[in-house]
Amino acid sequence: MPEIILDDLRIQAEYLQHEWILKEDKRLRKVIFDFKVTSDDYHQVTTKLYENDFTVKIPDENLQFQASISTYSTSITNLYHEGEVGDYHLELIEQTN
After folding, report:
1. Which CATH topology does 3-94 take?
2. Looking at 1-97, which runs of residues are DSSP E strands?
């Protein structure tokens, strides 16, 4: 499983896709990935995602760039019960600054 790092949060992606998009005549990276979140990690993950802007690192691909969330979804909105696992989907777009 590829590892994705959002600032200091390490995520093991079950699915990872790269695309290029055109925004305001600029070619930007778009990274799409799915991952699991356990009840143990729920607070840490959601707190990080609320920040919305990240330094994204994908070590296996030697990639690093600034990005913002364009799409975010989850199969469950409350993982406070022990042993629960949610499916998360995240799409990040490179920031233009």
Report:
1. Elongation Factor Tu (Ef-tu); domain 3 (2.40.30)
2. 3-6, 9-23, 26-38, 53-58, 63-74, 85-94
